[in-house]
Design a protein that fits this description.
Number of domains of chain C: 2
Distance between the termini of chain C: 37 Å
CATH class of chain B: Mainly Beta
Order of helices and strands of chain C: EEEEEHEEHEHEEEHEEEHEH
Chains: A alpha+beta, B alpha+beta, C alpha/beta
CATH topology of the largest domain in chain C: Rossmann fold
Helix content of chain C: 10-25%
Structural class of chain B: alpha+beta
Number of domains of chain B: 1
Strand order of the largest sheet of chain B: 1-8-3-6
Number of strands of chain C: 15
CATH architecture of chain B: Sandwich
CATH superfamily of chain B: Jelly Rolls
Oligomer: heterotrimer
Largest sheet of chain B: 4 strands, antiparallel
Structural class of chain C: alpha/beta
CATH superfamily of the largest domain in chain C: Nucleotide-binding domain of ferredoxin-NADP reductase (FNR) module
Largest sheet of chain C: 7 strands, mixed
Number of helices of chain C: 6
CATH topology of chain B: Jelly Rolls
Strand content of chain B: 25-35%
Helix content of chain B: 25-40%
Strand order of the largest sheet of chain C: 10-9-8-7-11-12-15
Radius of gyration of chain B: 16 Å
Low-confidence stretches of chain C: none
Number of strands of chain B: 8
Low-confidence stretches of chain B: none
């Protein structure tokens, strides 16, 4: 590990001007990506100053509902929007190689150096999940690896929970766990900053800050505790993996399949969904071809196609695959949960299917049966 | 001694393995040793189902013939298998041809004899039925798999 | 913080090498065998597969059907069933295709030394088990009784007929072939492959079975082997799912807790019994 938590860095406090300085310092050799308000939602895009951030905006989220409205003066009062950091580390489309004139040319390994500003606890956990998928082998995605190795992460501890958040039950937030370079917590008009790595400590020491007081620490802790208390949803994960795996024919799968539109929104907004399909793109004017991978969804019929037909032709088997994977078989495959409790799949489902409700329904039916 | 030898042979076939001495002796009373040379027919479609054959050696081809298509084998039966289930159900008539693929040694059970003994002793009848049922179900199951054409090009 | 990955190999496992076709042989209509050479090929283990690319069309996972002791020849037997396999089938000697691999968990052939071996193949499933047969024949003394039970659709669709004849002539291997649908002139067995178990000679307690074919056939073969007394963990199957990457990154080939490409394609019946009986898993 090159980046270990630095013990002697005491928390400091940044003003908005200090945060501007931090963004500028990061921008020296990185592209800084942060939250901006666009088309009525918070999305992650290049930012150059505090002025780009959605200051004074929060979101109201529920199953199938996302609305932004003005409230207070926080920079990070919003929770999570439809985009996630996987868009940058594991982009929707990746050229793998090109063929033509009797030769195969690998795509150069990605060179982007990102600094992510505003990574929430659930999102940091999601990055750790994708690290496991793409880097733990036996084979690795070198483009992801290169972007990941160069990434700098400024986490934000949530001081407000969204309507579909359930990070507490998934043990990923609202306070970000280690894995960040710097963690910020909004306190009044300022930000408590804690370094989580040498790189984070160094950059914090190079921007204007003031030492944090006990009152600052208490205010940050109170803010995080407030978010924790607001958490409207939860998943009881106790024995859940086995419960789902052992009940592939539970009638609830039919109930949810009746509602599911198979639109694949949940898999697109999910920060851990990693599946890709390999496409062949042929040039019209030569024999050159390009092999690309693009995000795929297990909600499509072709996803499971074997010669003759799809293994999962129906909505029931596809929803079951997705949810059982997230909460069940992910443990078998990666020794962790595939769900981090961000709530995006609930918010962005056009019919408001709620993974927490589905998990609870299957559990309560089985417990009612005494099983 | 000849009867005793036949009983051993009947007991040595998978169908009646472990049947018990009393029943075995009763069943063996309907049995004779038979041989068929290659290409000889054990029976023909439409004939009365007078025999049940417990194959000891060789393979039997079960076939149905059609004009222009010749004889079409739909099943082959080898050692330790049973040829002829039609004796169990009226009208006791063969629905296919059974042809020896090579030299065959088999036990033939007289169908009238066995049916009469089963009628007379329901316990024997039940025991015999339990022996034949798995073969019937297995053949049905195998036929189903053949119909599924699992090796065919899908789609 | 950054993930500490600076030590890692940055070559992309998704990039194939160019393999050249040395020989092409039409096995039966719609099935061809290619012998390829590719730079950097290090050999394979029986049961492993390669990802073969047809430029401009796509990439598919195909088991290696050659002999692992001949590391210079990469042998693939391909059935023309989709766009990519169709295009590959049309390639001729001297043409090139993309190749990456070998991937996947192999058949544990060496672990079966000292035991009886039953190989059950159905249809094109004879191709992925052919490396096992080559190995068994080359190391015949290391194994007990060896049996190949092979089921094909029709006599005209029996693969590798010459080799089957040669192997049968060696007399130290019991080879039984059956067809689902006989044609006039066929003098062999008729019926599903599981009917061949009755005549097969193996000691169930010390038998390792390798099964490859359509999933329905593998389920029934595995059940028949279990009924015969072979332990579920001594029965190996080769599974097929949609594989786009072959290396555990694309997610398509998931089957319950498994990635068929990296946890398989060879699994034990003990692993598969449950997941194979859940519909549409």
């Amino acid at each position: 590990m090159t980046a270990t938590a630095t013990k002697d860095v005491t928390p400091v406090v940044l003003s908005h001007a200090g945060l501007d300085a931090l963004i500028a310092a990061l921008a020296v050799d990185r592209q800084v990506i942060g939250p901006v308000r666009r088309d009525g939602a918070v999305v992650y895009e290049p930012v150059s100053s505090v002025a780009d951030l959605p200051r004074g905006w929060v979101d109201d989220q529920a199953g199938g509902t996302y609305r932004m409205r003005r409230e207070g003066d926080r920079l990070f009062g919003y929770t999570v929007g439809p985009s996630s950091w996987k868009r940058f580390l594991h982009p929707p489309k990746q050229v793998l190689w090109r063929a033509g004139d009797g030769a195969i040319t690998p795509e150069p390994i990605a060179k982007e150096r990102f600094a992510f500003l505003g990574v929430r606890g659930c999102e940091l956990a999601a990055i750790a999940v994708q690290d496991k998928v793409f880097l733990d082998g036996p084979y690795r995605d070198p483009h992801y690896a290169a972007r990941r190795a160069a990434a700098f992460i400024v986490a934000v501890n949530c001081t407000r929970a969204g309507g579909t958040c359930f990070c507490v039950s998934m043990e990923t937030g609202p306070k970000a766990a280690p894995g960040y370079d710097i963690a910020l917590t909004e306190i009044g008009g300022e930000l408590l900053a804690e370094a989580g790595s040498d790189a984070g400590g160094m950059i914090l020491s190079a921007v204007p800050t003031r030492p944090a007081t006990q009152a600052d620490l208490d205010a940050a802790a109170a803010g995080i505790a407030g978010a924790e208390a607001q958490m409207g949803r939860a998943i009881n994960t106790e024995g859940l993996a086995d419960l789902l795996t052992d009940n592939p024919d539970h009638p609830r799968w039919d109930v949810v399949a009746d509602r599911c539109l198979n639109c694949a929104n949940c898999t697109m907004v999910c920060p851990t969904c990693f599946c890709t399909t390999v496409d062949e793109v042929s040039a019209l004017d030569s024999d050159a071809t390009t092999r690309e991978s693009r995000w795929a969804s297990c909600f499509t019929t072709e996803f499971s196609y074997v010669h003759g037909g799809a293994v999962r032709p129906g909505a029931k088997s596809r929803y079951r695959q997705w949810m059982t994977h997230k909460l069940g078989s992910w443990w078998d495959q990666f020794d962790m949960s595939g769900c981090t409790g961000c709530g995006r799949c609930v918010t962005w489902c056009p019919v408001g299917i709620d993974i927490t409700e589905e998990a609870a329904a299957i559990r309560s039916d089985l417990e009612a049966e005494g099983g | 001694m000849a009867i005793d030898g036949l009983e051993k042979i009947v007991a040595g076939h998978d169908l009646f393995a472990g049947l018990g001495d009393t029943f075995l002796s009763t069943v063996s009373g309907c049995a004779t040793n038979v041989r068929f040379a290659a290409d000889e027919y054990l029976f023909h479609e439409g004939d009365a189902a007078q025999q049940i054959y417990l194959i000891r050696e060789g393979h039997v081809s079960l076939e149905i013939a059609a004009p222009g298509q010749g004889r079409m084998a739909f099943q082959s039966a080898g050692p330790q298998s049973v040829v002829g289930l039609s004796w169990l159900v009226p009208p006791y008539r063969w629905t296919y041809d059974a042809r020896a693929r090579g030299d065959i040694r088999a036990i033939a059970l007289d169908a009238d004899c066995l049916r009469a003994k089963c009628e007379a002793d329901p316990a024997l009848g039940y025991a015999v039925m339990k022996r034949f049922m798995p073969t019937i179900v297995e053949r049905l199951h195998h036929t189903r798999l053949q119909m599924l054409d699992v090796y065919g090009t899908p789609g | 913080m950054a993930h500490p990955v600076e030590q890692m190999d940055m070559t992309d496992p998704m990039v194939p090498t160019l393999a050249r076709i040395l020989r092409k042989r039409v096995e039966i209509p719609g099935v061809v065998t290619f012998e390829l050479e590719a730079p950097g090929w290090q050999g394979f283990a029986p049961g492993q597969f390669n990802m073969l690319s047809l430029f401009g069309v796509g990439e598919i996972a195909i088991s290696v059907s050659g002999y692992d002791a001949e590391p210079d020849r990469i042998v693939h037997t391909i059935r023309d069933v989709g766009a990519t396999s169709h295009g590959l089938s049309l390639l001729e000697e001297g043409d090139t295709m993309g190749l990456r691999g070998p991937y996947g968990v192999p058949w544990p052939v060496a672990d079966a030394a000292g035991r009886d071996v039953v190989v059950v193949a159905g249809g094109l499933g004879l191709a992925p088990v052919r490396p096992i047969l080559y190995h068994l024949l080359a190391n015949r003394g290391d194994y007990g009784k060896v049996t190949l039970l092979y089921g094909a659709r029709r006599p005209e669709e029996i693969l590798f007929t010459e080799e089957l004849g040669q192997w049968r002539a060696q007399l130290d291997m019991d080879i039984e072939v059956t067809v689902d649908h006989a044609s006039p002139g066929w003098h062999g067995h008729v019926g599903v492959v599981t009917t061949l178990f009755r005549g097969a000679d193996f000691s169930p307690d010390t038998t390792t079975a390798f099964v490859c074919g359509p999933e329905i056939m593998m389920r029934f073969a595995a059940n028949a082997l279990t009924d015969a007394g072979v332990a579920a963990d001594d029965i190996y199957l080769s599974m097929e799912r949609n594989m786009q990457c072959g290396i555990g990154l694309c997610g398509h080939c998931q089957l319950g807790p498994y990635f068929v490409c990296k946890d398989g394609p060879v699994f034990t019946w003990g692993q598969m019994r449950r997941v194979m009986t859940v519909k549409e898993l």
